[in-house]
Design brief:
Blueprint lengths: L2 E3 L6 E2 L2 E2 L2 E6 L10 E4 L16 E3 L12 E5 L1 E2 L2 E2 L4 E4 L3 E2 L8 E9 L11 E7 L4 H5 L5 E4 L6 E7 L7 E8 L7 E11 L5 E7 L3 E3 L7 E6 L8 E6 L3 E6 L9 E5 L11 E11 L2 E2 L7 E9 L7 E7 L7 H13 L4 E7 L7 H7 L6 E4 L3 E4 L3 H11 L6 E8 L4 E10 L8 E9 L43 E6 L18 E9 L9 E9 L5 E8 L13 E4 L6 E19 L4 E19 L6 E9 L2 E9 L1
Parallel strand pairs: 19-26, 27-28
Antiparallel strand pairs: 1-4, 2-3, 4-17, 5-10, 6-7, 7-17, 8-9, 10-16, 11-16, 12-15, 12-17, 13-14, 13-16, 18-20, 20-23, 21-22, 21-24, 24-25, 24-26, 27-29, 29-30, 31-32, 32-35, 33-34, 33-36, 36-37, 38-39, 39-40, 39-41, 41-42
Length: 638
């Protein structure tokens, strides 16, 4: 946390005066210490659970990655409760008795956690400044700023002139009001300081994390105008061992505003490499930046030697108690049917008999239904349109590794091998492999399997047939699919499953052992192998395979390559045989055999071309079997 009340003393480095800061709070201690929070409306708080109808501190970095661990939040909706807020947040006393008037300003960032597409982002608020700390006195004055947010999932930087308050002690009041049934207003980085004329800061650097070799990648710098003059030009350098200095003209960035500036020189490498990029703003409006302490940023990029197929994983928070959660089940079924190749859906249950506590706690949904997309887009809304939009936003991302999964073993004892084939070098890799076990056709007889249903009777519109079912839907009529049953390796993946130093082309395997519970049906279960980036918790890539496929004994080490992958008319299977008779079988994910090829008295390396022109588009498994042992790789047919 940075919460400071500073005397108005000029900070000098050499001959350059930095901006004088009199107050600053980024709420990163997740606390409103020193602030006064007042609920001044007639909303009735819930009988149990958290009352969100008041300003409180929370970690909103899942919605806004640029924010730190804490923000101030006030809500107009939470957990299916609608609020009409009139909530006051009053700052500590801010001593400006020795502050010069020139450039004296109040600066803050504000946003809504909802997507613009949802239309639930239109939070309304006002800002008051007074020498009184009494809310009633403060709101009797004219606000120094007032707005209804114009877009969601965006943090806006705002600046107000406080020169009239120089020489006084003041209080600032943020008032959330005049709105209802939106979601959450987020406030952060509240600062009072004297702005210098030409001062820019680097708020962040955006660059493709993984990229194709020889492709041109745009490096975008998020620049905030910390000065009093509008910014019309910037000199920006990115350095990967060599300088790339460019001047960007034609800007018009007002004081307090933030914008993305694209560097004219693309980032591109002809080979598979890993590069650290340092970014620096050196000149603002053709003069040296007043405060160079905030002028740097960084990014990392890896180019890949092979473009691997990426799957999109959507984990949906649901519960039988949740009356709106049928919307998630319908959306999930649509996605699985419409995008069978590279979409993986998992239902993470909360508060019902299908709950896996570790999974529910790890997903950390703030409301239900909710969703996490690749664990990169967190706490997202749930609907067919929202899922399609998230899938389209993620499906073409370049990934550092391909991934496959194979299950073997008889009865209820299953060995699941997750394999990642890396396509880029990594000097300090921080990845883990994990497996998520899911099950379809789950039923139950107790009341906990009754599904609450807000769509009963059709008053809330059509919802995949739920409008024709009662509320609640009796357990006898409910079948639950995509149910998350187990986390093998934990929510964040198995520690030590991926080495720290990776070379291009390196294959990494990890074997997970799982016992299918007697209450589950192995034939209805799948293993989802995931590669998780530990630096940000994101699922980088994933693949889904059945638990019911192979029961051919222990896995034999057989070097195997399936190419091209994806394939259209023909696929080549290359492997190193150790002598004997082999069988190559291609099955779909339901376990149906599509083709079988027998090889007799094999010695040495073999490469077999197999026709697949009659296969439908989708995921398949290629299995080499010998003497009761097998090895499997995934195949995608377009």
């Amino acid at each position: 946390m940075i919460k400071t009340l500073l005397p108005a003393i000029a900070l000098v480095v050499g001959t350059t005066a930095f901006a004088q800061t009199h107050f600053s709070d980024d709420f990163n201690d997740v606390n409103l210490t020193g602030w006064s929070s007042t609920d001044n409306d007639a909303n009735v708080p819930p009988a149990t659970g958290t009352n969100y109808d008041i300003w409180y501190a929370a970690d909103m970095s899942a919605a806004f990655a640029q924010l730190g661990a804490g923000s101030a939040v006030s809500r107009s909706w939470a957990n299916n409760i609608v609020y009409s807020p009139n909530n006051f947040l009053v700052s500590p006393a801010i001593n400006l008795t020795a502050a010069p008037a020139a450039g004296l300003s109040l600066i803050w960032e504000v946003g809504s956690i909802e997507t613009t597409a949802s239309s639930w982002y239109q939070e309304h608020y006002a800002v008051y400044v007074s020498t009184s700390s009494t809310p009633a006195t403060m709101i009797a004055t004219t606000p120094v700023y007032e707005e209804t947010l114009s877009a969601g999932e965006t943090m806006f930087g705002r600046t107000v002139d406080l020169s009239a308050y120089a020489g006084q002690t003041i209080y600032v009041l943020f008032r959330h009001f005049n709105c209802t049934d939106e979601n959450a207003l987020v406030l952060d980085n509240v600062v009072v300081k004297n702005l210098q004329p030409n001062d820019a800061s680097v708020d962040g650097v955006a660059l493709n994390r993984y990229a194709q070799m020889s492709a041109n990648n745009t490096l975008a710098v998020s620049v905030k105008n910390e000065g009093s003059n509008a910014i019309t030009s910037l000199q920006i350098n990115w350095n990967d061992g060599a300088d790339h200095i460019q001047t960007i003209n034609g800007l018009n960035l007002a004081a307090g505003a933030t914008t993305n500036v694209n560097h004219p020189t693309a980032v591109s490498y002809a080979t598979a490499v890993e590069k650290n990029i340092a970014v620096t703003i050196s000149l603002v409006n053709a003069v040296v930046d007043t405060d160079p302490s905030n002028n740097t940023g960084s990014a990392k990029i890896n180019t890949v030697s092979v473009l691997e197929e990426k799957s999109v994983v959507i984990e949906e928070g649901t519960g039988t108690w949740c009356q709106w959660c049928p919307r998630g089940a319908v959306a999930m079924d649509f996605m699985v049917t419409t995008y069978p190749i590279d979409f993986i859906g998992i239902a993470v249950h909360n508060g019902d008999p299908m709950t896996v506590a570790e999974y529910d706690n790890g997903a950390n949904f703030s409301g239900f239904p909710g969703s996490n997309v690749d664990r990169a887009l967190l706490d997202q809304s749930v609907s067919q349109n929202a899922f399609v939009a998230a899938y389209n936003a993620r499906k073409d991302l370049i990934v550092p590794a391909g991934i496959s999964v194979a299950a073997t073993g008889a009865g209820n004892n299953v060995s699941i091998v997750a394999t990642a084939t890396f396509r880029t070098p990594l000097a300090a890799a921080n990845y883990r492999l994990g497996v998520i076990v899911i099950e379809d056709d789950v039923t139950g007889t107790t009341a906990g399997y009754n599904q609450s249903n807000a769509y009963a009777g059709g008053a809330s519109g059509a919802m995949g047939g739920y409008e024709s079912l009662p509320n609640p839907v009796p357990a006898a009529q409910m079948v639950y699919d995509h149910v998350g049953r187990a986390l093998l390796g934990g929510y964040n993946g198995q520690a030590g499953s991926v080495p720290a130093v990776i070379t291009d082309g390196q294959v990494v395997n990890y074997t997970f052992n799982y016992t299918v519970p007697g209450t589950s049906n192995r034939a209805n279960m799948h293993a989802v192998a995931v590669l998780i980036d530990q630096t940000n918790g994101e699922i980088v890539n994933a693949i889904q395979g059945p638990l019911s496929l192979a029961s051919l004994g222990e896995i034999e080490t057989i070097g195997m390559e399936v190419y091209p992958n994806p394939a259209t008319d023909e696929v080549n299977v290359k492997f190193l045989g150790t002598g004997g008779d082999y069988q190559i079988v291609i099955t779909d994910l339901a376990g149906r055999q599509m083709s079988a090829t027998s090889l007799v008295n094999v010695t040495g390396a073999q490469s077999i071309a197999l026709p697949i022109s009659g296969f439908g588009a989708g995921n398949y498994l290629v299995t080499i079997a010998k003497d009761g042992a097998s090895y499997t790789q995934n195949l995608i047919v377009r």
